[in-house]
Amino acid sequence: MEIIKIEPFKGRNIYSHRPVIRAAADLGELYDTPTRQIRDFNERLLQMLPGLAKHVCSLGYEGGFAERLAEGTYLAHVAEHMVLELQGILGFDVHYGKTRAADAPSIYHIIFEYKNEKAATECLLAVSDMINMLIAGKLPDIEKIKEHLAKVAAESGMGPSTEALFEEARRRDIPVVCLEHSSVLRLGTGKYTRYLEASLTDSCSCVAVDMAGNKHLTKIKLSEAGIPVPRGDVAYTFRSASAIASAIGWPVAVKPFDANQGKGVFTNI
Fold it and tell me: What is the Cα–Cα distance from 240 to 254, expressed in whole angstroms?
């Protein structure tokens, strides 16, 4: 199984009123092979992620997904539930997902709800690796995987103050977005736009300094102002870096998230 494309839908979309990620997965030669035909796959899967046994699935009741496994379901459908389960383990309240066949026989679209885009993407990539290991007859080190995902979620998620302000803005129907890879909130639109960083507002000059020191956030702001910037994203692992580079198109440049004077920059990779 290989993830070949990842597309986040940050607002209401054709699938849901909630933010979702749509991933294109290539199942290769196993695209039409149900999991019950893969030796010990179902047993090892439920041993590794026992919470899957409680998933409802399309049958509408607890344990429905386990029944689908026993009957025989496809790997993309399994990946959908695994991503939701891993996000749940991280503490994210997500439940919506669906899997649909694409135009090519071996390609499936996996759609799933998310709260933290970067953590959800890492969950997806981890699921791809886990499924490939299960197919090969190996049992992934789930504790090590959860430790890595928890670290990504902690580093990319909102802090307590930012999250409280975010939820309060939503409660008051104020348009609010947490800017990527930062703790900066954007409230309102147009000339009424204001920025908050934790308990600081954009009236504090230090916010502008912090925003300028964040390379990814600086690119977002320049792009919003109509200034051309190179495509890019933040990677936490070699695998996620490879996925991002493939989506952008090779060759690429790599640089630290927050550094200066050209330190750690590599080009034409």
Answer: 13
